[in-house]
């Protein structure tokens, strides 16, 4: 129970209930609140924006990634981020757990909810030694961009922290750079971005692409943490600044260049010439006031414009990341497709698994002495198996995006030079692709088996039952076989075998379809 003095304190929150579902609060005034467990900030929210009004008050639900930790007890504190005033403080119990709640990752490192409602290792849990590699990488990537003719600068939260506070923002979890191209046409800006990616790759960095003009450069900190350094491209056109992440606003180039400087953790870095205008365009006129629960509100017109110009290649990536994260502890088994291929092609030299996931089929073929290539556009899934198989000459894993034509053509041509006979398997991928993605899959498979008698072996959900099979496999929705038949014909191939079967004997079980496709006719 709270003391009478606490209830009378000006600004105290009217906390009516704390439970595993969330916080039931009274009051109708909008306010920003920091939530801490045992003195460590875990999450921040705006009462009205993030809450759900009810007859009993406002229910602010715990973010989904935090809920698995809510079993035990903790000293729950809620404070005003601006003043630091304590709004509520009490020992609380969640569930039946008898130990203190510890929000950490498997390695024991503390986690907190970021602005995207993800559990991450935020900067306020890292010391100077941990982030030195990140600061080094910022300097090096800025140098690499200068080497290719671009004057880049700190952007978004990294610029905000440097300009406002002189350091990394505690509740942030990554670093951002931006640049404004000398080109004014989206196609030229895209070509430039891919040139930047090649330069960074040549320097030894692992690079993941967000969109046609936005990259993530992976940086390993001193304790092995993989920290992302985002590089957002931009350009000026018709008096507007277009900067991924996402800004589309009337602007002058002179407000960016020539660049100024700001101090970040004791180092000087470039920032836009007019920092007030730049941060106002990014965070609004109140950018000087810290807001750990800040959310970007991008106009629909800007999203539509950027989607048309630059996006499309990341569709579904977040969903697959969530699926693999949710199923990380589930045992994996060899697919029926892999077994079927092995039986029908005893002389197989190379097996290619498109959408390999965690790499079970790749490992199985490798253990049989067959070269196996695992392709997926979510490296999070296959990285553990790739690390285990580092010294296995039969195993190769490769980032592969069916929505990016560069990947489809380059990777498929690379596979086509591998020893034959070759066969391609693809299990529960086509259900999550649109027409363009499925045609790219068929094009890729056709290239990969070219010059051999190899075939493509597909398996997909053709009828969704009530057995949770769609969720277990990540398939989500059923796909009519007639759709694939038409697209195979469009690709110049033919279906030489089609089998439909239920996944179990239950009356309401799901049905899968398996097809064998070739282009040798």
UniProtKB/TrEMBL annotation:
This is Class I SAM-dependent methyltransferase. SUPFAM superfamilies: S-adenosyl-L-methionine-dependent methyltransferases. Coiled coil: none annotated.
């Amino acid at each position: 129970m709270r003391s009478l003095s606490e209830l009378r304190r000006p600004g105290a929150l009217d906390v009516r209930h704390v439970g595993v579902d969330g916080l039931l609060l009274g009051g109708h005034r909008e306010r920003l609140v920091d939530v801490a467990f045992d003195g460590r900030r875990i999450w921040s929210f705006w009462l009205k924006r993030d809450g759900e009004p009810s007859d009993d008050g406002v229910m602010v639900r715990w973010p989904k990634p935090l809920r698995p930790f809510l079993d035990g007890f903790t000293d729950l504190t809620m404070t005003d981020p601006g003043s630091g005033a304590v709004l509520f403080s009490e020992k609380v119990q969640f569930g039946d757990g008898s130990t203190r709640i510890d929000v950490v990752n498997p390695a024991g490192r503390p986690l907190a909810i970021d602005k995207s409602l993800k559990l991450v290792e935020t900067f306020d849990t890292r010391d100077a030694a941990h982030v030195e590699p990140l600061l080094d990488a910022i300097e090096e990537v800025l140098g690499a961009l200068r080497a290719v003719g671009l004057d880049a600068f700190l952007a978004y939260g990294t610029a905000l922290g440097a300009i406002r506070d002189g350091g990394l923002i505690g509740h942030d979890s990554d670093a951002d750079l931006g640049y404004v191209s000398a080109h004014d046409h989206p196609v030229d800006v895209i070509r430039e971005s891919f040139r930047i990616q090649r330069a960074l790759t040549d320097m030894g960095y692992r690079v993941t692409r967000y969109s046609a003009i936005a990259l993530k450069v992976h940086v390993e900190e001193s304790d092995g943490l993989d920290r992302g350094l985002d590089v957002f491209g931009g350009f000026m056109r018709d008096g507007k600044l277009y900067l991924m992440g996402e800004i589309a606003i009337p602007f002058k180039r002179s407000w960016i260049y020539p660049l100024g400087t700001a101090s970040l953790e004791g180092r000087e870095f470039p920032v836009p010439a007019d920092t007030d205008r730049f941060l106002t365009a990014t965070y609004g006129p109140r950018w000087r006031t810290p807001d750990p629960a800040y959310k970007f509100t991008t106009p629909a017109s800007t999203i539509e414009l950027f989607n048309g110009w630059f996006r499309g290649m990341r569709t579904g990536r977040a969903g697959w990341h969530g699926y693999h994260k949710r199923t990380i502890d589930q045992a994996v088994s060899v697919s029926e497709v892999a077994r079927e291929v092995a039986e029908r092609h005893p002389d197989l030299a190379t097996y290619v698994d498109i959408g390999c996931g965690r790499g079970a089929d790749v490992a199985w073929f490798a253990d049989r002495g067959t070269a196996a290539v695992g392709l997926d556009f979510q490296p999070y899934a296959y990285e553990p198996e790739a690390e285990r198989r580092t010294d296995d000459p039969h195993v190769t894993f490769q980032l592969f995006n069916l929505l990016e034509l560069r990947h489809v053509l380059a990777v498929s041509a690379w596979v086509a030079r591998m020893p034959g006979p070759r066969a391609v398997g693809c299990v529960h991928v086509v259900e999550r692709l649109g027409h363009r993605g499925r045609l790219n899959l068929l094009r890729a498979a056709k290239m990969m088996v070219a010059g051999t008698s190899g075939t493509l072996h597909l398996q997909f959900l053709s009828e969704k039952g009530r057995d949770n099979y769609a969720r277990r496999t990540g398939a989500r929705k059923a796909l009519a076989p007639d759709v694939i038949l038409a697209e195979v014909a469009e690709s110049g191939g033919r279906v030489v075998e089609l089998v439909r079967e239920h996944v179990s004997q239950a009356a309401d079980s799901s049905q899968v379809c398996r097809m064998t496709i070739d282009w040798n006719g």
